[in-house]
């Protein structure tokens, strides 16, 4: 048999709410047994009546905490449907989600795939309680009950298309489910499989049965293979594992808990009783599993037995194992059973044992067996080559092999052989020579369907990361891959894990900070790149980023290599060396081009690709290069020639920035023919260029009139007639270089608008030297195109400030301005912060490029923490929902948050809030009451923009009921068919408007306001 990897685990067992707590319980030989909770059944009445009447001999068992808690909003399940669901469905749904996350996968990634779901279950007590209460059977009761639905729920909500089935072979159900899952993987039916088991004791029925059959332990505790063994103690729990073919898991670098080498299932047939164990069948199934796994009995270091603690069961199991291991008296095989800690978890017993074995192999330690101090001498374990563990067993280095048995009361037996994960699955990737990925700083991300859920999960992550030392790179890289897919996006950068923990704690504690670090993007992000021009340069610009980021280093080196044949000296070395020559035009222009090109290419490699481009003067060269106008080598030649030719021009010119509009200056310029407008940066931001003497005269006049000016520190009068002597020579080079049409929308500062299939050829670049820079017009046109983000590409945040000051050219939100480089001290952290900002706004970076290869290794982060605010249970009558707190005190629901739907909210704007219609509108009130009754919502939870299907969890059955309830309140609706109604169910507001029109009711429209 080919091997199957266990790549993800989640579980809840008595005294152990998660896998970490489960392992702790096992290692300390903890006891999860307690008194039957009041919630399970009428405990007080049961305690007195059942014992007095001899029905049951115990009120003890292993029970999980809070099985009624369910985060229905996370799965978009209405309260009414949640209340009708078997708690086993609810537990499995949350457990499966967490197990998939533990496997290093965002569950949404499995949507649409042929992932299989195999659930072991033997109890259907919820159905017994509710489907026999005929007065309260609802449409939801059908989907809320039934074995098949336990698996189908998972497949439906995770949108899985592979095999989906529930298995009932009594106590062996969940190990048989693992067997079937493994076979489905090996046959190619699926590439991933979720195998699970669940058991919730809702009634005393099985406790009474065990007592009447002489199988029940009076203290409610299983004592496997012990002299104290006196019967079964009941237990509850849920567990799920994610399985994958070993070769696939290794190829993808997934972490592996353990490997399933082989499994086998058989049946007792007609033996010594339908419910009695059969030694011969058990030893046969063990032999078959060994054979399929390709192991000898002597290879098996320990076995997790079925171990119910009944006299006959323990004897049969010991004999079956002894048949294979009797020759190991010198080195007996270790034997134990988790039932000593938890009780017999029935349909979940196999998965409880599997997870114990997988964790034991993972930690290379087998926990001691509870109740092993007094071994049952009648079993003759030593003679059978077996021993109970009285202390934890350390497994030696190398491959360790373990067995696992699970035997069904009706005679269906299962055995599995597992081994430790191959060494290569745990090895970090070697650091390659000359790695050219990574930005030097990690970006931790987390998403959730609502702000309160985000805060809850931030706390869980910070606590887990604070509890153990973890490398930041793998932690952040894993968060990017696994904690994605929900509406609310949180992101922060950090230099190390300690700093990350502090930032997570601070965000969780401060709502305002959390809001600043969280985005809820609506429409698809649309990104503009703004390339800074001359004047923004300084010595050592981007040196910190070059130091921290191998990715940026790669592209700056690339630009430097392209420039070197034309500059004669390294631009890169000049930058990194802090040479003041960077202010000289000869060096400033190619240096700014190199920085703009390298930063733009770095962002592109990181998955941040521009939809719109704009460059300020010399910044347009890098923009054109990235837009495909010409290759890097040609762009480098052209920009180097531009800078060198301008540097050779005679001195005598200058530039003057004026706080006035272009039109205000025209009259003054008419009298000064040697000065002209060089740059228009805004309605009242103009730069003049020309002869120094003329500029001084204008400056004095402006000062006298109270108009502010500033003389720019430049070597020449750029964009003026003083550039004319270089144009002819520059034109020759420009014609040789050529230039095509941009492949992306590029907003030209030469024309002040987007280029419309116009080439940026030699004529363009010659005119670009001489004519004014129409930045304000070009930027206004770009803003009108509706970018959600404006990323400034350059060494200083110059253009962002100018663009913010431009008047709003069209309705809509301003873009978010993102600064990958903020100034002289910038390094990898600023680039990481920019990525975080973009992610919050809806951009999904290529996270692999953010990290060096050595950091792209999986790290097991805590899985999603579900809300326990909503409770669903039954209390001797119809199914009802119970909330622990009044509605007003509960966290905002995911449904309420969805009023921020993309089509209603421009990205980057504030929260949209909705006003309820004025009281007395009968149509609105009727519709809200009907929706509330069908879904189980309070009417004040319902907002007009809530979507019935996506937000409120409606389905076709609920729609039929909704129509009936509306008809009761609005008789006029009786003339409608379901076909009439279906197209008008997009949202609550759409339905209300439709009903108003149909009923002829004049009523004020639903109003909205922005906050």
TrEMBL record:
Top-rank taxon, per record: Bacteria
InterPro entries for this protein: Ac_transferase_dom_sf (IPR001227), ACP-like_sf (IPR036736), Acyl_transferase_dom (IPR014043), Acyl_Trfase/lysoPLipase (IPR016035), Ketoacyl_synth_AS (IPR018201), Ketoacyl_synth_C (IPR014031), Ketoacyl_synth_N (IPR014030), Malonyl_transacylase_ACP-bd (IPR016036)
Domain Carrier: 918-999
Annotated Ketosynthase family 3 (KS3) domain residues: 1-420
Alphabetically ordered keywords of this record: Acyltransferase, Antibiotic biosynthesis, Phosphopantetheine, Phosphoprotein, Transferase
Spans annotated as Disordered: 420-439
A Pfam cross-reference name: PP-binding
Protein name: Type I polyketide synthase
